[in-house]
Amino acid sequence: MKYGIYAPNFGNAFGNPKRVTELAIEAEKAGWDGFFLWDHIFNPEGFPDTVDPFIALTSVAENTETIHIGTTITPLTRRRPWKLARETVTLDILSEGRLILGVGLGGSSEFSLMNEETNPRIMAEMADEHLLILFGLWSGEEFSYDGKYFKMDEVIFRPRPVQKPRIKLWGAGTWPKKGPFKRAAKLDGVVPLSEQYTNPLTPDDYRNMIEYMEKHGLRYPYDVVEISFDATKNEDKKRAIQDFQDAGVNWWLELVSDWNGSYETIKDIITQGPSEI
Length: 277
Fold this sequence. Notes:
This protein is α/β, with parallel strands linked by helices.
């Protein structure tokens, strides 16, 4: 099992890029395997201070050496694919291949603020085209694209990412909706959520999810992520982690945010490391 920090890109602790960097440094020192930021432009829920995750992760990459870094998740439909390709290749090189890009459709509540597309069917089609363009550009070979939503003339996009054959991608989705998991099955990992936070996914949900994705192209090695919304460490937590691991989960992300308390409290949770879980 690998363990990571899962944090919003807003709030007192994570809405300041210097604090994000400080906390990522502490996470690496404490033995966490990953440090992942949400990707929002606005937060309408009372935490106005927000950072750009890619710029914040650039600072993290420069100040760490081994910890995986990434986004969970980047909404594809509000980004231009060629711009995201350039950002991610730059960050992958800067981090020497430690980038994991989490991708999904994103939330329509934020999109409506910016008059972005909110129709799930159209968003899914756009996301599929977006991924094809990322694959083509990351290849470093001659590439052009003529799709329904995106078009580009032939280009050669260099440099290539450090990672081979491409930057690692995790696909996000809400189980038991099937579409996002067909898409995720063709990527390198999955970040599932339940339809209701009060009704979290169970190990059996993961077994059913993995079985479904295996029928739609999942190939191993493959990352299966569970997000824990409870940062406590006790025997019940140990048993829960083992149950999820038995079901196929190999990444355990702990939500750490202003909801846990002050900056000092958050720092303390991170510096305890995953070894005490």
